[in-house]
């Protein structure tokens, strides 16, 4: 059993469909994956995650927003909101932000843009970044067909490729200090 507290996996059907407890037997896993969820949906149910008090949160969300024709800015803003809220409400938790996975190549430019923004933003909330793109995408941005039967959901080989990246990502996330506390300035009685 884990000696470092529970891990919350948060996201959509890609998270929901994983047999995480079997694949990560030394972890206490909370699966907060819901099929079809968008970033808006995760925001709406974020208190479920916060109230579970995980010591590590691994987030993977955003691909369903693109199917609903949400803009890159919408997805990035929502994921930033999720991360800021998690950091504020779970200041001691470790956070691992996973890149939006590749899917059909027609989404590649949008996903690359989202991932570039998230890669830059993650350090501002003391989150670790895990780029899954190199392990799962072809050169044109298509999800490698070895890993999916429908250009979106992962098959067994796809989950294995993800796990090969996720396990060391979780280990790296735990090695970092979770956050630095905000500096509290003394009350100077309004003499600024």
From TrEMBL:
Gene Ontology molecular function: phosphatidylcholine lysophospholipase activity
SGNH hydrolase-type esterase domain location: 10-161
Official protein name in the record: SGNH hydrolase-type esterase domain-containing protein
Record InterPro entries: Ester_Hydrolysis_Enzymes (IPR051532), SGNH_hydro (IPR013830), SGNH_hydro_sf (IPR036514)
């Amino acid at each position: 059993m884990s000696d470092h507290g529970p891990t919350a996996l948060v996201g959509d059907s890609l998270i929901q469909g994983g047999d995480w407890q079997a694949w990560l037997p030394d972890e206490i896993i909370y699966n907060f994956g819901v099929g079809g969820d968008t970033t808006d949906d995760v925001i709406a149910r974020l208190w479920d995650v916060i109230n579970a008090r995980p010591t590590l949160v691994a987030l993977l969300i955003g691909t369903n927003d693109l199917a609903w024709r949400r803009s890159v800015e919408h997805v990035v803003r929502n994921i930033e909101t999720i991360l800021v809220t998690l950091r504020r409400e779970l200041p001691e938790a470790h956070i691992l932000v996973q890149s939006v996975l590749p899917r059909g190549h027609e989404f590649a430019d949008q996903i690359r843009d989202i991932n570039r923004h998230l890669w830059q933003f993650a350090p501002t909330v003391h989150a670790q970044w895990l780029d899954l793109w190199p392990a799962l995408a072809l050169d044109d941005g298509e999800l490698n067909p070895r890993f999916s039967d429908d250009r979106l959901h992962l098959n067994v080989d796809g989950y294995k490729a993800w796990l090969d990246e996720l396990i060391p990502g979780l280990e790296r996330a735990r090695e970092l200090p979770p956050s630095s506390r905000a500096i509290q300035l003394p009350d100077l009685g309004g003499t600024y």
